[in-house]
Amino acid sequence: MIYEIRKFTDSTYFTNALKITIAAVIPGLLFSFFGNFEIGFTVALGAFFTYPSDIPSNLKHKIKGILFTALLVAIVNLLVNIVHLYPLVFYPFLAILIFLLSMISVYGQRATMVSFSALLAVSLAFAHLHTGWEMIQHSGLLLAGGLFYLLISLTFHYIRPHRYIELQIAECIKLTGKYLKLRGDLWIIDADKKGIIEKQLHLQVELNTIRQNIREVLISSHTTSGSSNQNRKMLIVFISLTEILELALSTSFDHDKLHQKFDNHPKVLLTYQRLAYNLAASLKQLSKSIQNKTKYVSKHTLITDLNTLQLAITDYENELGKASASEGVFMLTTMLQYAEKQVEKIKIVERAFTLAINSLDFKGKDKDLEKFLTPQYYPLSTLIQNLSFSSTIFRHSLRLTVTILIGFIIGNLLPFHNVYWILLTILVIMRPGYGLTKKRSFHRIFGTILGGLIAFGVLSLVHNSIAISIFSILCMLLGFSFTQTNYKISATFVTMYIVFIYGILTPILLMLFNIEFWIPSLVPL
C-alpha cells in the first residue's frame, strides 16, 4: 500500500498535476487577499490553458511549446472578443478558427496539446465576453497566467532535473522485463500463445511511446548540452534496453517443435525457461530499485543459470550420443547463445546503476544519436497533405467544428446563460473514434453524478470555508493526476472540486436547483 502511494506521488502525472494546482491556486489566493479575485481567477485560467502543452521533452522545446501556447491562448481569446461584435462575420470566423486549431494536431503530440489548449480558450471565452480595454486586459492576464505556469514548470525542472528520465527509464526496464517474462510463458506446454502474443504487441506499443519520450529528453540534452555522468549512464541504459528488445523481437523459436523434440528430455527446456524468467525478474527488481531510490543488489545469478543450461545441454548430448543429439544440440546452442547475449546486455544495465560510468564505456555508441529523434519542424505541406477525407485528423476536425457550432447555436436558442458549458463538454468528450467518445461520455456522466453526490454530502456536513477550500485544492490535484490514466476517477474529483468552489461562493440549495450546473454531463448524449 505504501509502495503504491509512493509510486503514485512520484509519477509524472502527479507532478504535472501538482504544477498546475500550484500555478492556479497561488494567483487566486494572492489576488483574493488584495480584494481582486477576478484578476487572480483569470491568471489561474491562463495557467490552466497552458498546462496541457507541458509534455515530456528537452528544456528548449518545453519552453518554446509553453510560450507559444500562452501567446496563442491570449490571441485566440482576444480575436473571439473582437469578432463577436460583428454577428455576420462571427459564425464563419468561429467555424474557420475551430477547424484550423483542430488541424494543428497533424504536427504531433505537442501540437495536439497546443490545439486542445487553444480550443479550451475559445470555449471559455464565451463565459464572459469583453469589450474595449477590458478584452485587452483579460487577454493580457491570460498570457500572464501562462508565463506564471512556465515559471512553476521550470522551477520543478531545476529542483529534480533527472527524476523524470529516471522514472521513464524505470518504466521502460519494467515493461521490457514483462516482455521477456511473456517469452518465458511461451515455453509452457499448454500456453495460450495467441493471448501471450497479443499482450506482447500491447507492450510493444507502450514501449514505443516511452522510448520516444526518453529520446526527446535524453538524446536532445546530450547533443545540445554535452554529456554529464548522469546523462551518460542513462544513455547506456537506454541503448542497452533498446538492444534487449530488438534482440528479443528478432529471435524466435518454434516452441511446438522444440517440445516435440525434447518430449523425453523436459529438464533442458525447464532449465531454459527458468533462465528466461530470471532475465525478466532481474529487470523487474532493477526497475523497483530505481523507483524507490534504493541501492541495487541483484538477487539472481544469471551467470550461474547460463552454466546450468550449458550443463543440461552437455548431459543431453552425453545421454543420446553425439550423432543422435547433433540436431537437438544445435537448437539448444542457438537458445544458449541468445540467452548469453541478453545476459550480457542486462549486466551492462545493472553495472550502470552500481558503478561509475565514464565516456570510454560508450565505445562509439553515442555517435549520430540525433538520428533517433523525431524532427522538430512544422512545414505547411504537412497540413496541406492532411486536408482530405483520408486523414483521421481532418475528419475529426470537421466533426468537432460542426458539433461545436450546432451546440453553440442550440445554446443561444434555448434559455441557457452559460453556453460555454456545452462547448467545453463537446471539446473534452469528443474523440476521433466513436467508441472512445461513447466511453468518455459514460465516464463523464458517472464521474459527475458520483462526484456531485459525494461533494454535496460533504457540504451538508462541513460549513467551514477554509476546510472546503482545502478539499477543493486536494480534489483539483487528484482530478488532474488521473486525467491521463483514469478519466472516470478524474471526472469524479473535478466535479467535487467545482461543487466545492460553488459551495464557497453559492448557497448549496441554489446549486441543487441550478440545471446549468448539471447540463454539461448530459450534452454528449
Automatic annotation (TrEMBL):
Question: TM segments?
Answer: 20-51, 63-83, 89-107, 114-133, 139-159, 397-414, 449-482, 494-519
Q: Which parts of the sequence belong to the Integral membrane bound transporter domain? A: 407-505
What is the topology of this protein in the membrane according to its UniProt annotation? Multi-pass membrane protein
**Residue ranges occupied by any Integral membrane protein YccS N-terminal domain in the UniProt entry:** 66-331
Q: Which UniProt keywords apply?
A: Cell membrane, Membrane, Transmembrane, Transmembrane helix
GO terms for cellular component: plasma membrane
Q: Does the keyword Chaperone apply?
A: no
Q: Where in the cell is it found?
A: Cell membrane
Q: Which domain of life is it from?
A: Bacteria
Q: Which Pfam families match?
A: FUSC-like (PF12805), FUSC_2 (PF13515)
- Protein family according to the UniProt entry: Belongs to the YccS/YhfK family.
What is the protein name for this chain? Fusaric acid resistance protein-like
What species is this protein from?
Answer: Flavobacterium urumqiense
